[in-house]
From TrEMBL:
InterPro entries xrefs: TM_pro_TauE-like
Compartments where located: Membrane
Residue spans crossing the bilayer: 72-102, 114-132, 152-185, 248-266, 278-297, 325-354, 366-386, 393-412, 424-449
Protein's recorded name: Membrane transporter protein
Signal peptide: 1-29
Keyword hit for Glycosyltransferase: no
Membrane topology designation: Multi-pass membrane protein
GO cellular component, one term: Cul4A-RING E3 ubiquitin ligase complex
Organism: Panicum hallii var. hallii
Family listed: Belongs to the 4-toluene sulfonate uptake permease (TSUP) (TC 2.A.102) family.
Length: 466
């Protein structure tokens, strides 16, 4: 009976994780158009907004009229599904949102990216609020690891700025190839990590069941049964709702807000100066002392033992060495660089990275979403000031993602408590990355084929000519 129950639990968990792959088929089958064709739609069929560039050329933003129909209904369903799974995995769901907005709703590629950032922000804000009421699965601390976020978020945002520059220079075919290779490799690694975690959970459940059976077989313990590990897990700190204000570390949150404001101000100011001008490089360079200064402040506390990475558990609550801190910072820059290069948020990189560093799945998802809230909201403010998206559409899909994230978090947390397997989060994370590789890779290949047919230039670009 126990074996059948474990098999049924395995099938249920894998079914929930693999259901994320259905979004790719829905996106591919819904409409045969690609993002470049959406940008070429006739003005009388769609709303077209022009944005003047510094060189005098105008980019045509294709904004479809907001009318109730099969496109917005199907797009809402896919967006809801992507936000629900993305919030659980800590990846946001941009790999689902961008193709949906371009292929189904009919936005041009740049507007699709901007509205996708709005949806990611909506989902991350609601997820962070939901997680603020929860605690660490094994420690009496918040579920979000503020010290880990403060250590890596400045480096992550600095890496994003560097990656955006490479995104302008690299050709589309190279970016698409890197995206497919990286996402397939990352999803495979995450699946293997999920299987490993699943096996450990199975062994633990068997040991708990064996201990409980031994206690039940002893007559002298029939009246005073000691609480088992399963009973303790049922009352784990992560399942206890607490005050939101008690779970907010205001000092760390204030430092993260300072980095957010500083980077946002520099990014907005940079848009009003010419590329490769003296002020352009000065504003880019000012991001370095901001990121390094905050990171060094956090690193000094971790080295002196004044701060600890609570997400790694009580057995590793010791002062970190310089080498370990350098590795964390290097991973943060690489995650941001890859995210900026591929046009994605840091969640697709940070989630698997946190898991490899030995952080519990619940804490990994919560912390990755927390850091993503800052980066996505910064992009939304910048896009709004540049008039990159229609406000009614953005507000609607942001609300959809906001509600979907809460529903996804609630349902999956209940399922984890029922199955007793946090590895479900890892499988959802891996599935979202795999689906994103299919959808974004498919759109990228379609755009490359379209450019090849038109014999357009496909080599490296000059940053100073953009």
């Amino acid at each position: 009976m126990g074996i059948r129950r474990q098999q049924w639990h395995a099938v249920a968990a894998l079914a929930v994780a693999w259901c994320c792959a259905a979004a790719a088929a829905a996106v591919a089958a819904a409409d045969g158009r690609n993002a470049s064709l959406a940008g070429a739609a006739a003005p009388e069929e769609t709303g077209v907004a022009r944005q003047q560039h510094g060189d005098g050329k105008a980019y045509h933003h294709v904004w479809p009229p907001m009318e109730l129909g099969w496109r917005i209904v199907l797009g809402s369903l896919i967006g809801f599904f992507g936000a629900a799974c993305g919030s659980v995995g800590g990846v946001g769901g941009g790999g689902i949102f961008v193709p949906m907005l371009a292929l189904i709703i009919g936005f041009d590629p740049k507007s699709s990216t901007a509205i996708s950032k709005c949806m990611i922000m909506g989902g991350s804000v609601s997820t962070v609020y939901y997680n603020l009421k929860l605690k660490h699965p094994t420690l009496d601390m918040p579920l979000i690891d503020y010290d880990l976020a403060l250590l890596m978020q400045p480096m992550l945002m600095l890496g994003v700025s560097i990656g955006v520059i490479f995104n302008v220079i690299f050709p589309n075919w190279l970016i698409t190839a890197l995206l497919i290779i990286l996402f397939l490799g990352t999803s495979t690694k995450a699946y293997l990590k999920g299987i490993e975690t699943w096996k450990k959970e199975t062994i633990k459940k068997r040991e708990v069941a064996k201990k409980q059976e031994q206690i039940c077989q002893e007559p002298e313990h029939t009246t005073t049964i000691v609480p088992t590990e399963q009973a303790a897990e049922a009352k784990a700190p992560s399942d206890k709702a607490t005050s939101v204000l008690k779970n907010v570390y205001w000092k760390e949150f204030g430092l993260l807000a300072f980095v957010w404001v500083a980077f946002l101000g520099l990014q907005i100011t940079k848009n009003y100066v010419a590329s490769c001008s003296v002020w352009y490089w000065v504003l880019n360079s000012l991001q370095i002392p901001v990121a390094i200064g905050v990171t060094l402040y956090e690193a000094h506390g971790l080295m002196a033992g004044k701060r600890v990475l609570s997400s790694k558990g009580s057995q590793q609550q010791s002062a970190l060495r310089v080498r370990q801190l350098l590795v964390y910072c290097l991973f943060g820059i690489l995650a941001g660089l890859i995210g900026g290069l591929l046009g994605m948020g840091g969640g697709f990189i940070m989630g698997p990275l946190f898991l490899e560093l030995g952080i519990p799945p619940q804490v990994s998802s919560a912390t990755a979403t927390f850091t993503m809230m800052f980066s996505s909201s910064m992009s939304v403010v910048e896009y709004y000031l540049l008039h990159r998206f229609p406000v009614p559409y953005a507000a609607y899909f942001t609300a959809v993602a906001f509600v979907a994230a809460i529903v996804g978090q609630h349902c999956v947390r209940k399922l984890i408590a029922w199955l007793g397997r946090a590895s479900l989060i890892i499988f959802i994370l891996a599935s979202m990355i795999f689906v994103s590789a299919l959808t974004l890779g498919g759109v990228g290949i379609s755009n490359i084929a379209h450019r090849m047919q038109r014999h357009q230039y496909m080599g490296f670009e000059s940053l100073c000519r953009v």
